[in-house]
Specification:
This protein has about 300 residues and is mainly beta. The protein is built from two helices and 18 strands.
Length: about 300
């Protein structure tokens, strides 16, 4: 746009903000990009045929400051947007608590971890842990955990996604990381777990890879770093699910064609872990369906099509 007053009525005070290619502030220009030079000019005629334009100098100054504020706000917004895009933990959607233990990127461990504010959970069964063997650690003797994934290269070349979470419903803790080609993840106890005093029996750890039809779960092996590399073959795989409501008559089956059977644990209060040992089968992959009745209600909660790789 030209900086002349062509097309404007005589004696009209016009404020022109030249942004990049020269868009006008009066015509609702797009917000300037970060680092854009903003220049405002005013054009005034010596005649005043319109009485309502008295005090137009003040109006011009007001518009000048308004345009400058818009430019500054746009630059700040761009910076915040760039930071959010660079934050690897932003996609979780969690609202971190305002403390050093809040959910955020932990550069030492290269993962997202911390405490977050409560959210409204859906009425469904949720996978909260799938481990080979038991999880154990001691805050006084151990500083790190080693999370190991089995060799799944025959099934997928994608990294294994790892998530840890508090098992009680009111334990709002989460860790998100991933295991690459080295098949291990080093996880610090001193960042959050030790300061928050989250014990091993209050914690679930689950891993998965993203398949064509959804998540494919992978049993993980977690040990203190001091004893990492311990023999894990033959350890029982334990699946842990959780319900946000009281449930009873828990049943499961291992493919869509088989009959339902009673699960080893028949009932659970809201938030209590439902521990189910995964049976040993000859195939490398198993499909599990789980369902349960809500106490004092006729409805059910369920989890169908839970796919688990049984490789070491």
């Amino acid at each position: 746009m030209s900086t002349t007053n062509r097309g404007l009525p005589p004696s009209t005070l016009a404020l022109v903000v030249q942004i990049s290619a020269g868009e006008s502030c009066c015509s609702s220009p797009p917000l300037p990009h970060r680092g854009t030079l903003v220049r405002c000019q005013s054009h005034r005629s010596t005649r005043r045929p319109f009485p309502e334009l008295r005090g137009s100098r003040r109006i011009a100054h007001f518009r000048l400051w308004a345009c400058l504020i818009v430019a500054i706000a746009s630059t700040t917004t761009g910076s915040v947007r760039s930071y959010a895009q660079a934050d690897p933990c932003a996609e979780s959607g969690l609202r971190a608590v305002q403390s050093r233990l809040g959910y955020k990127w932990r550069s030492r461990s290269k993962l997202c971890e911390g405490l977050y504010e409560s959210d409204v959970a859906a009425i469904r069964l949720q996978v909260v842990s799938l481990l080979r063997g038991k999880l154990h650690y001691d805050f006084d003797r151990h500083s790190h955990l080693i999370v190991e994934a089995p060799d799944i290269s025959a099934f997928s070349t994608k990294p294994v996604q790892v998530r840890a979470m508090g098992l009680p419903l009111n334990a709002y803790y989460r860790m998100d990381g991933e295991i690459g080609t080295d098949r291990t993840l080093r996880w610090s106890l001193r960042e959050v777990l030790a300061p928050a005093r989250i014990r091993a029996d209050q914690l679930g750890v689950v891993g998965w890879v993203d398949g064509d039809s959804g998540k494919v779960y992978v049993p993980l092996f977690v040990t203190p770093e001091a004893v990492a590399g311990a023999q894990r073959g033959g350890s029982v795989i334990e699946l842990v699910v959780r319900s946000p409501v009281d449930v009873e008559d828990i049943k499961w089956r291992f493919d869509a064609e088989s009959a339902w059977g009673d699960a080893p644990q028949r009932s659970a209060w809201a938030g209590d872990p439902i521990r189910l040992p995964v049976p040993e089968v000859s195939q490398d992959r198993i499909e599990i369906d789980i369902r349960a009745k809500r106490r004092s209600r006729r409805s059910t909660v369920k989890l169908y099509g839970l796919s688990i790789l049984l490789v070491e």
